[in-house]
Amino acid sequence: MPADMYISTRPVLAPHDASRPGGRLLDAASLTMKLLKLAKAPTLGDINGDLSRVPAHVRLEEGQVERLREFLPVVAQIRVKLTRSWDEAGVTVAACLTCGRWMLVSSEVKTIPKKCQLTSGCGGVVRKASAAVTRAQ
Length: 137
Known about the structure:
This protein is an alpha+beta fold. It has four helices and six strands.
C-alpha cells in the first residue's frame, strides 16, 4: 500500500492572507484542481462530487473539507486540463486578498492584474490559484 500523501495548496500565502476570504477561496480552488487531476476528471460535475476516484492514500487535512464546502459554488466552475489538447481549456480562480472578490480566468493565462480591479478603490493584491501538490507527511 502506498504511503499516505497530503495536499499542499498553491499559491503559498502569508497566514494573515490565508485566513481572509480571498485566501481561503484560493486554497479551495488549488485543492479542487489537484483533487480533479488525481480523480482524472475535468470538473466536479463529471464526478458528481464523489471523491472516491481520488486515490485512497491521499489524505485531506483538517479544514480542507470545510473550505471546499464553503466555496463549492465557486470551485464547481473550475475546469482542469487533463490533456495537452488545444481544444480543452482549463479554468481557474483569481481572487483579491483584500476585498475577497474573485474572477474566473483561463489556466493558460500567465499574467493577471496585480492590483484589484474588481472592487472600486480596493487596490488589493490579486493572486491566481494553481493546482496543489502532494507531499508525504
